[in-house]
């Protein structure tokens, strides 16, 4: 039996955690930071694995596996999403929790990084099965989550209802209501207005600022967005309102293109009704991955991770990439874009609106005072502009760094400073 060695055009297999560690090393090489702190930050503080038994609707008992990764809490409680997906792994949760640490630090939010998930396909479960899964998971994780310990939020395969079930279950076991144990809840039980739209809003705001940074007019900018779900649709619609020309959109089933631009409010998002993007009456239809290679000014990968790879990085024609999804670019693709001089604004800055409004929600829960949607959006824009200016300052201060490295420099400095001040517990 013979095996074929990978060709140079292939990306070597890389987990989210490996990618995050490579990014950490590159940022650390540009600043003076204690090597011991860097080494600590390459490893999670803990990873919890739980078995989640539930009774299915047909009476059968099934065991699901769940994970919760805690990366770092030097700056505050762990914070991060909870996803239900068949491909969830402990290593993936570790990598995503590391990105949450940097994201919170870049935004200067007093949280650390956490992430979790259950190996399950929520679309194959009934609503009652999803509820039973969530309630039992809340019990299994009760000792490691809490408003001052670890605060989950919606992610792939979960939503506001999931968070409501989780919060209710935790509160029942604790004997009192704890709305701050999760964020992304419905407003009627302590959720924040604007939370669901926040990641897409922040992508649009940061894209607008990046377009301006490179002395381009947003009214003359063409944009392609892969992933017209919660993040992509909200980013597209706000960019449309800013004056950008959104010429291509995609969902999981395919992509559409109109050189004259779409009325993005007329296109139904994948979240609102699956399949309506690729089924929209547009001048041109194309494959989902072809959208990434269109000749546009800005491309926004806002769907899945690892969609920009060594196999297509040389074919990307956009002048600017703004990451809407978490981890859409592999390490080697990152290097290719840097070599080609294509600026890439990283996820830990661009889509940080989600965790920022989660922080607002947490504050509202603690203080028992709700904010209006206008207050949330105004505060979000202010926080995003502050973070943009911090990262832009690091980018311009170092001649040889990418935007991703600049964001990591900002985040790493803050996390390292917290570790140095707190010291090491014996």
Automatic annotation (TrEMBL):
<dbReference type="InterPro" id="IPR033524">
    <property type="entry name" value="Glu/Leu/Phe/Val_DH_AS"/>
</dbReference>
<keyword id="KW-0560">Oxidoreductase</keyword>
<dbReference type="InterPro" id="IPR046346">
    <property type="entry name" value="Aminoacid_DH-like_N_sf"/>
</dbReference>
<feature type="domain" description="Glutamate/phenylalanine/leucine/valine/L-tryptophan dehydrogenase C-terminal">
    <location>
        <begin position="192"/>
        <end position="423"/>
    </location>
</feature>
<comment type="subunit">
    <text>Homohexamer.</text>
</comment>
<dbReference type="InterPro" id="IPR006096">
    <property type="entry name" value="Glu/Leu/Phe/Val/Trp_DH_C"/>
</dbReference>
<dbReference type="InterPro" id="IPR006095">
    <property type="entry name" value="Glu/Leu/Phe/Val/Trp_DH"/>
</dbReference>
<feature type="active site" description="Proton donor">
    <location>
        <position position="115"/>
    </location>
</feature>
<dbReference type="InterPro" id="IPR014362">
    <property type="entry name" value="Glu_DH"/>
</dbReference>
<dbReference type="InterPro" id="IPR054867">
    <property type="entry name" value="GluDhGdhB"/>
</dbReference>
<dbReference type="GO" id="GO:0004352">
    <property type="term" value="F:glutamate dehydrogenase (NAD+) activity"/>
</dbReference>
<dbReference type="GO" id="GO:0006538">
    <property type="term" value="P:L-glutamate catabolic process"/>
</dbReference>
<protein>
    <recommendedName>
        <fullName>Glutamate dehydrogenase</fullName>
    </recommendedName>
</protein>
<dbReference type="InterPro" id="IPR006097">
    <property type="entry name" value="Glu/Leu/Phe/Val/Trp_DH_dimer"/>
</dbReference>
<feature type="site" description="Important for catalysis">
    <location>
        <position position="155"/>
    </location>
</feature>
<dbReference type="Pfam" id="PF02812">
    <property type="entry name" value="ELFV_dehydrog_N"/>
</dbReference>
<dbReference type="InterPro" id="IPR033922">
    <property type="entry name" value="NAD_bind_Glu_DH"/>
</dbReference>
<comment type="similarity">
    <text>Belongs to the Glu/Leu/Phe/Val dehydrogenases family.</text>
</comment>
<dbReference type="Pfam" id="PF00208">
    <property type="entry name" value="ELFV_dehydrog"/>
</dbReference>
<dbReference type="InterPro" id="IPR036291">
    <property type="entry name" value="NAD(P)-bd_dom_sf"/>
</dbReference>
């Amino acid at each position: 039996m013979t095996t074929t060695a990978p060709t140079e055009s292939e990306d070597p297999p890389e987990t989210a955690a490996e990618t995050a560690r490579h990014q950490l090393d590159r940022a650390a090489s540009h600043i003076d930071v204690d090597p011991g702190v860097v080494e600590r930050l390459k490893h999670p503080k803990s990873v919890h694995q739980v078995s989640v038994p539930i009774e299915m609707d047909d009476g059968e008992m099934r065991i699901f596996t769940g994970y919760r990764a805690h990366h770092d809490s030097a700056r505050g409680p762990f914070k991060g999403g909870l996803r239900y997906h068949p491909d969830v792994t402990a290593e993936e949760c570790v990598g995503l929790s590391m990105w949450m640490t940097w994201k919170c630090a870049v935004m200067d939010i007093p949280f650390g990084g956490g992430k979790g998930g259950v190996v399950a396909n929520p679309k194959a479960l009934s609503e009652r099965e999803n509820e039973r899964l969530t309630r039992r998971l809340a019990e299994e994780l009760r000792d490691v989550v809490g408003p001052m310990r670890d605060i989950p939020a919606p992610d792939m395969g979960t939503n506001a209802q999931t968070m409501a079930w989780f919060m209710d279950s935790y509160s029942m076991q604790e004997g009192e209501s704890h709305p701050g144990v999760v964020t992304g809840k419905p407003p009627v039980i302590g959720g924040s207005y604007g939370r669901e739209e926040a990641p897409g809003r922040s992508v649009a705001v940061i894209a607008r600022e990046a377009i301006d940074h490179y002395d381009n007019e947003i009214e003359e900018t063409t944009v392609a967005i892969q992933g017209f779900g919660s993040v992509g649709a909200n980013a597209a619609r706000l960019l449309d309102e800013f004056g950008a020309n959104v010429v291509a959109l995609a969902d999981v089933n395919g992509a559409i293109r109109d050189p004259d631009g779409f009325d993005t409010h007329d296109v139904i998002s994948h979240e609102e009704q699956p399949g309506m993007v690729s089924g929209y009456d547009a001048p041109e239809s194309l494959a989902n991955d072809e959208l990434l290679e269109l000749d546009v000014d800005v491309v926004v990968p806002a769907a899945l991770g690892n969609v920009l790879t060594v196999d297509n990085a040389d074919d990307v024609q956009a002048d600017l990439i703004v990451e809407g999804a978490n981890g859409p670019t592999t390490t080697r693709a990152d290097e290719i874009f840097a070599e080609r001089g294509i600026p890439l604004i990283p996820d830990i800055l661009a889509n940080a609106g989600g965790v920022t409004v989660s922080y607002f929600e947490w504050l509202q829960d603690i203080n028992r005072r709700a904010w209006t949607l206008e207050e949330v959006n105004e505060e979000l824009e202010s926080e995003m502009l502050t973070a943009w200016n911090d990262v832009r300052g690091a980018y311009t201060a170092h001649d040889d760094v990418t935007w991703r490295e600049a964001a990591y420099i900002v985040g790493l400095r803050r996390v390292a400073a917290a570790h140095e001040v707190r010291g090491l517990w014996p």
